[in-house]
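The protein record passed on below.

***
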Amino acid sequence: MRIGLLIFALVLFAISYYLHRQLNGQFLNHQPQQEPQLKSFLTRYRNYFAVIGGLTFVSTITNNVTFWLVCLLMGCVLAAVFAISFANQI
């Protein structure tokens, strides 16, 4: 189970890193440098993914299954909210 949580934390960190890299480049067909609202949106969700990834990584150190499940649920809900918010943003 811990290996799965570590992989999940790495995926969340990878999404955060991807959003960070796109702040200075082209994100899909948009330029975040020219659209301040999109840039703040990407920055906010980059931070959210990094925090949830950090909490998930910390949860692997503990033996608390409830904490594991809460981190998994928060990560999944965050990904869904990001997808819906981004669809509304565009």
